[in-house]
Automatic annotation (TrEMBL):
Catalysed reactions, as listed in the record: GTP + H2O = GDP + phosphate + H(+)
Root EC class: hydrolase
Classification lineage: Bacteria, Bacillati, Actinomycetota, Actinomycetes, Micrococcales
EC number: 3.6.5.n1
Gene3D superfamilies: 3.30.70.240, Elongation factor 4, C-terminal domain, Elongation Factor G (Translational Gtpase), domain 3, P-loop containing nucleotide triphosphate hydrolases, Translation factors
Protein name: Elongation factor 4
SMART domains: EFG_C
Keywords: Cell membrane, Elongation factor, GTP-binding, Hydrolase, Membrane, Nucleotide-binding, Protein biosynthesis
Species in which this protein is naturally found: Tersicoccus phoenicis
Annotated ranges, domain Tr-type G: 4-185
Function as written in the Swiss-Prot or TrEMBL entry: Required for accurate and efficient protein synthesis under certain stress conditions. May act as a fidelity factor of the translation reaction, by catalyzing a one-codon backward translocation of tRNAs on improperly translocated ribosomes. Back-translocation proceeds from a post-translocation (POST) complex to a pre-translocation (PRE) complex, thus giving elongation factor G a second chance to translocate the tRNAs correctly. Binds to ribosomes in a GTP-dependent manner.
Chain positions recorded as GTP binding sites: D16, H17, G18, K19, S20, T21, N132, K133, I134, D135
Length: 597
């Protein structure tokens, strides 16, 4: 396909602004998907994506569209909308020349609209502003067209009005894509260079890699090389998605498609890497790629200890399709054998846990999520702590650094006070504030990641009656006065409950956790103190009073078989108990204490 008739674009939008629905309508309008084959959110292939209504993995589809007698090939690259997957968004954007900036006509611009727009601008993309859902009775197209025009420059009259639901405006939108998005340019006789913007493991075909060719061409049977690792593979198949994978005789400049080499692990075909020709390799790769960096860690333990090998196999399988997932075995005195897993964010954690439970039939306990701490010891040694119970104690710690984020919050101006209060309580530093219009404000904060991973978004939503939106990105590390709080049962540390908190919040954590455990742990034959401690200093304490329960007393004078039955029943019950020192703790107590409320 000659580059002049190719248009590569993506759709960027805040979550739920209707990106997938609009993509469905474009597939129909261009005849790529017949009416009868249409199913909602065609591009979201994974079951879990369809159920949750979110896009996790980006996909690319090729659509024919004719303008003035010329047949164009439009490549639409779908991008994930959630902040955890920002790196994938930025790679998808780098594969395009233009972007549709899609905004819900009843909601206006939101935090992710801005974040994605800035990414698109960094990639020099042509931007077509589009208001979606204009069929909604609550739509305010005039108001938001103006807001959009202010943001991207241009006339409010140039903002397209569409509805992914009714299909209104979709053909005009396709025409605009052809007219306004530049054709790709590249060097035909240069060594081949193609950028990987997605890579998906398929149990039948191995890894399917999505690429955008920049220079030269890729053809079947060619030997290719991954520029970051120098690993080489034979191209077994190459083709385009329209809407199912269709093999072709090759991909040239500006073309978007997939390739299959038979590798079995997405780590061998990394998002952001450059594919070149082994025989005639390019000298420079296309922009750097980043190894995905886990930001949030949690311990995953099977409820039933004998499921440990199943969990290990399940993680190995998920890893084939998720380069960002990291894990290593760990043992907890309280929870047994499990894995410490690293995730891009909380959503990534939730999705992974969900898939493990659902696809591999596992019941799991996950420990409270935590971030990574860089600890410098008095002797100058540095350690990375991903598990709070391994945090060095005593006078050995010189400095602790925690990861920070740059957060953008958009909300109606009435809520500025409530938002500032929340951010201050979370140790946030205000960086700036702008009014997008007279009643909408953008607040920029620098916050510790640890303060937002847990319930920040929920709190933000409830304090702004659902109107605020949030986006954030990693923003370096910063030293802070952090301490480890341990929880002790009868003097024995319970590793799963150790937490790293700011010194000012340690007391509150200790009081909360000891009170919670007092509720959850049944009384024993002896008194059980529950303590929270920083090092050897106790900061909170509760007591579980002793009971004297003599089960055999009930059987006084009774026959021996009844006694035995009773004793056996007791033993049964003990199986689901974990021993912490001499204290029997039902597993449910651990689960309940670890679940957030
Ligand atoms: P993510 O993939 O999670 O980013 O969401 P999305 O932006 O793809 O949104 P999606 O297409 O899933 O639509 C979100 C919700 O809005 C769904 O309930 C849709 O039915 C609804 N919706 C989408 N487009 C329209 C529209 O044009 N009009 C109306 N009334 N509803 C729409």
């Amino acid at each position: 396909t000659p580059p002049e008739i190719i248009r590569n674009f993506c759709v960027i939008a805040h979550i739920d602004h209707g990106k997938s629905t609009l993509a469905d309508r474009m597939l129909q309008a261009t005849g790529v998907v017949e009416q009868r084959d249409m199913r909602a959110q065609y591009l979201d292939r994974m079951d879990i994506e369809r159920e949750r209504g979110i896009t996790i993995k980006s996909q690319a589809v090729r659509m024919p569209w004719e303008v003035d007698g010329t047949a164009y090939a439009l490549n639409m690259i779908d991008t994930p909308g959630h902040v955890d997957f920002t790196y994938e968004v930025s790679r998808s954007l780098a594969a395009c020349e233009g972007a549709l900036l899609l905004v819900d006509a009843a909601q206006g611009i939101e935090a992710q609209t801005l974040a994605n727009l800035y990414l698109a601008m960094e990639n020099d993309l042509a931007i077509i502003p589009v208001l979606n859902k204009i069929d909604l009775p609550a739509a305010q197209p005039e108001k938001y067209a103006e807001e959009l025009a202010n943001l991207v420059g241009g006339d409010p009259a140039d903002v397209l009005l569409v509805s992914g639901k009714t299909g209104v405006g979709v053909e005009a939108l396709l025409d605009r894509i052809v007219a306004e998005i530049p054709a790709p340019v590249g060097v035909a006789d240069a060594p081949a260079r193609a950028m990987i913007f997605d890579s998906v493991y398929d149990s039948y075909r191995g890894v399917v890699t999505y690429v955008r060719v920049v220079d030269g061409a890729l053809t079947p049977r060619q030997r290719i090389q991954m520029m970051s690792t120098r690993a080489s593979h034979e191209l077994l198949e190459i083709g385009v998605i329209s809407p199912e994978p269709t093999p072709t005789r090759g991909l040239g400049i500006g073309e978007v498609g997939y390739l299959i080499t038979g590798v079995k692990d997405v780590r061998q075909s990394k998002v952001g890497d450059t594919v070149t020709d082994l025989a005639k390799p390019a000298t420079t790769s296309l922009g750097g790629y980043e190894d995905p960096k886990p930001m949030v860690f949690s311990g995953l333990y099977p409820l039933d200890g004998s499921d440990y090998p199943v969990l290990r196999d399940a993680l190995d399988k998920l890893k084939l399709n998720d380069a960002a997932l990291v894990y290593e075995p760990e043992t907890s005195a309280a929870l047994g054998f499990g894995f410490r897993c690293g995730f891009l964010g909380l959503l990534h954690l939730e999705i992974t846990r969900d898939r493990l439970e659902r696809e591999f039939n596992l019941d799991l306990i996950s420990t409270a999520p935590n971030v990574v701490y860089d600890v410098t010891l008095e002797d100058g040694k540095e350690v990375q702590v991903t598990n709070p119970s391994e945090f060095p104690t005593g006078g050995k710690v010189a400095q602790v650094c925690e990861p920070m984020v740059a957060a953008t919050i958009l909300a109606p101006s009435d809520f500025v006070g409530a938002i500032m209060e929340l951010c201050q309580a979370r140790r946030g530093q205000l960086q700036g504030m702008d009014y997008l219009s007279e009643d909408r404000v953008e607040l920029r904060y620098r916050l510790p990641l640890a303060e937002i991973v847990f319930d920040f978004f929920d709190q933000l939503k409830s304090r702004t009656r659902g109107y605020a939106s949030l986006d954030w990105k990693a923003d370096g590390d910063e030293a802070a006065d952090l301490v480890k709080v341990d929880i002790l049962l009868q003097g024995e540390q319970v590793d799963a409950f150790s937490a790293i908190t700011h010194r000012d919040k340690a007391y509150a954590y200790g009081v909360m956790m000891t009170a919670k455990l007092r509720q959850l742990i049944p009384r024993q034959q002896f008194e059980v103190p529950i303590q929270a401690a920083i090092g050897s200093r106790i900061i909170a304490r509760e007591n579980i009073r002793a009971i004297r329960k003599d089960v055999l007393a009930k059987c006084y004078g009774g026959d021996i078989t009844r006694k035995r039955k009773l004793l056996e029943k007791q033993k049964e019950g003990k199986k689901r108990m974990k021993m912490v020192g001499r204290v029997e703790v039902p597993q449910e107590a651990f689960i309940a204490a670890l679940s957030s409320d």
